[in-house]
Amino acid sequence: MNKIDIKTLAKELNVSPATITRAFRGYSDINPETKERILALAKKLNYHPNYYASNLRETKSKTIAVIIPQLRDIFFSLAIDGLESLANQKGYHILIYRTENQYEKEVSFINYLQNGRVDGIIMSGCAEAQDHKYLHQLQKRNIPVVFFDRIYDDVKAPKVSTDDYESSYKATKLLAERGCKKIAHLGYKNARSIGKTRMEGYQDALKDFGLPVDEQLIINCLDDNEQNYACISLAIKSLKPDGIFAAGENLAFISYKICHELQIKIPDALKIISYSSSEVADLLNPSLTTITQPALEIGNKAAMLLFQILEGESQAVENQIILQSELIERESTRMR
Amino acid sequence: MNKIDIKTLAKELNVSPATITRAFRGYSDINPETKERILALAKKLNYHPNYYASNLRETKSKTIAVIIPQLRDIFFSLAIDGLESLANQKGYHILIYRTENQYEKEVSFINYLQNGRVDGIIMSGCAEAQDHKYLHQLQKRNIPVVFFDRIYDDVKAPKVSTDDYESSYKATKLLAERGCKKIAHLGYKNARSIGKTRMEGYQDALKDFGLPVDEQLIINCLDDNEQNYACISLAIKSLKPDGIFAAGENLAFISYKICHELQIKIPDALKIISYSSSEVADLLNPSLTTITQPALEIGNKAAMLLFQILEGESQAVENQIILQSELIERESTRMR
DNA sequence: TTGTAAGCGTTATCAC
DNA sequence: GTGATAACGCTTACAA
């Protein structure tokens, strides 16, 4: 019940606090028997070295922060799963921060983390278009940052991303090859870096296949399912696209629902392809053609890069890892 | 670049460290002008009070640990989203620990957390059948624990769960009412509390509808999709159930896939109902009848209970919140 | 192999 | 309103 600290434990055993430390940290300059005695009593009394006191001395926290827009997005869940498993192996702990795509939250998290609470940060940004000086402050403090997926081009840091331009190009190309003439793009509004790149791949493919780039067909979506439903529904009704390229699986799921309600046949009347990390793509009616990012691996590699820096291989700062996404064609883009 | 601490800042401004503290903690016994000077220079020099030093003094970390089996399970992602939003409001930070349903990991996380690193713990257990004395140790240290969803009945702590028995009963009843005579149950093997309760609701409903309880029809699943695929597939082929009640959406998704491959028509030849938190249930082919748990709210309530304790309303320890799940009937259980 | 003692950077208590 | 000072509980030189 009463808190027991290193000194009382030391007194109890007639050794010095330093020796207790030696036992707990696995140092070699200690008599094995002493060590055993110490650990035995510690276990019995349920003594554990105080985390905050240790860290204050060591100035290493073995903790990293992960900043992401949303957890409920399966892509991010998977990325964190991948990242956590490596972190856990390495003895690191993970703090989670959710920005909900709000720039102010991102800034405030980063500012907070200047207090030395974490050894490093892994993040997926939500504010490409904004000023990033709050991040430069961090770097001055020697707190390394690694980006994944939603990266900031103007910040010098290791980054893990996927071949967004190429995949988007391929996705749009596939729709064109399957006969679509009026291909809509459902993207996310906030000018995030990946939003831009996905858009470019889409537009370039349109041009290469002699299809006009119609601004109307580019639908800016938000994080609100209801609102997205309304605006995608409106777009489908009024513009009658025969192909949809969605930048996120939720947008595809919503499109499915709308088609079902409007009795628009997929893929006959409308073909759909979407970025997706979810295993259910295969189970939808019809099964959904996807571009699937290696989410687990992205998280894993991001953690790897961060640990490289933390372990002193500082050239890693220059690292840019670009992983391949996979285009998996299913029924939603089949020709009849 | 060079680290700046409270003393150097104090020297710079010709005040004492104590006054700096007063400025940063918003204490009233400080001249507003002095405060302004301090905060201004602090901002300029990018000074932030060291987190570990503060905590060592205060013995409050404003941090909670969340221990869950998996992050990629949408139910847990949602629960954490719900929990994080309240935590964030209250100024708390969240450490995530993933057990992957391994008892040893759960024990080791809990033991680790005895070091005073967090003010409290919110967890969903993975080892109902095992010994829980490691948790009692925690409680001696006055680190409160709140359970959600996968609760341990033998541990005295606040708990948030859903009406698992009733929902399972209702689910099984629905299948019986829709004419199923041979209802299989896909459940999770590790005898978790909710696993047991779901099972009981299933068995009691069978009895009440005059259907035999056949052990063979109770399929024990694991966390491995591949293996589950194999054993569910085998069960469907050999036992030919006409109804399936799945304890988790993954198991339902897998069943869909198997039916598709075996050309078994849902719901004509086989009706399916499943626990699910995913929004895609509605988009499957056919749409999936679900029992949907209020995941966000579960997380939110769990956090609420923990904060009540941390804020001194200790009677909260007795709290047991049971939330209602919703049965949403869709096409996968329709009669033809 | 072990002990002593000086910090780590804060904050609380008490003076002034 | 402000400053000196003693903790908080640990780790690490250095000495023995």
UniProtKB/TrEMBL annotation, chains A, B:
SMART domains the UniProt entry points to: HTH_LACI
Organism superkingdom: Bacteria
Annotated Pfam families: LacI (PF00356), Peripla_BP_3 (PF13377)
Residue ranges of domain HTH lacI-type in the record: 6-58
GO-annotated molecular function: DNA-binding transcription factor activity; transcription cis-regulatory region binding
InterPro entries reported for this sequence: HTH_LacI (IPR000843), LacI/GalR-like_sensor (IPR046335), Lambda_DNA-bd_dom_sf (IPR010982), Peripla_BP_I (IPR028082)
Designated name of the protein: LacI family transcriptional regulator
Taxonomic lineage of the native organism: Bacteria, Pseudomonadati, Bacteroidota, Cytophagia, Cytophagales
